[in-house]
Specification:
252 residues; alpha/beta; Rossmann fold; 4-stranded parallel β-sheet; 11 helices; 7 strands; 43% helix
Length: 252
Amino acid sequence: MQTLEQFFAVHPKVAVALSGGTDSSYLFYAAHQYGCDVHGYFFETPFQPARERHDAGLIAQMVDAPLTVLSEDVLEDPRVAANGPRRCYWCKLALFTSLCSRAEADGYTTVLDGTNASDDVNDRPGMAALEELGVLSPLRICGLTKADVRRLSAQAGLFTARKPSYACLATRVPTWEPITYALLQCVEQAEDTLARLGFTDFRVRVFHGAARIQLLEDQFSDAVLQREAIEEALKPLFEAVLLDLQPRISKD
């Protein structure tokens, strides 16, 4: 199995889909460290909260490599807005088709994403779209797991080393419940509130008009102590606020 250094020796000029998360941030950093001409692209969509763009910008500054923000209104595609089982496929196809086109115009014909060797690609419909478009996943190709990426990120001094895994806001909405701008804004505001209150690695999921909060087990007591603050902030956004008693299990 080849190393990342060997991979980038073969691919010296690359475009990276930089989400601001742990995996793509390390990939972006490694490409630069191994002497690549690397350009990052961030997708600004209704599915991405503002804090992710902020983190992607910080990584680009730290690496000292260019970052382009691609604004894409994926909800204009009715197949995405309908939120069926293949929503992720249609979304990824639209986003990476746009990225590939822009990257090629910028002089980059090799496009990379941050999928790692721990990711279950069979549970990711969007991976099929990436394969169709010829997008490469070096972390996966080189056998680097999430644990490897976190360790290497820490060694590199990247602030994303311990950043919790993040999935787009669309994953908070149950399959076949139509996704709207207003609903996504409510979810983003609710999650921003919980972050400000000190919670980490959580989700706010839509459940029949209510906000269903999923927390790590060791944060349940904090939720009880801050119940009034949570309710006050989230009640204007959702019909009810619920705490899921099944603890959230971190995937890494």
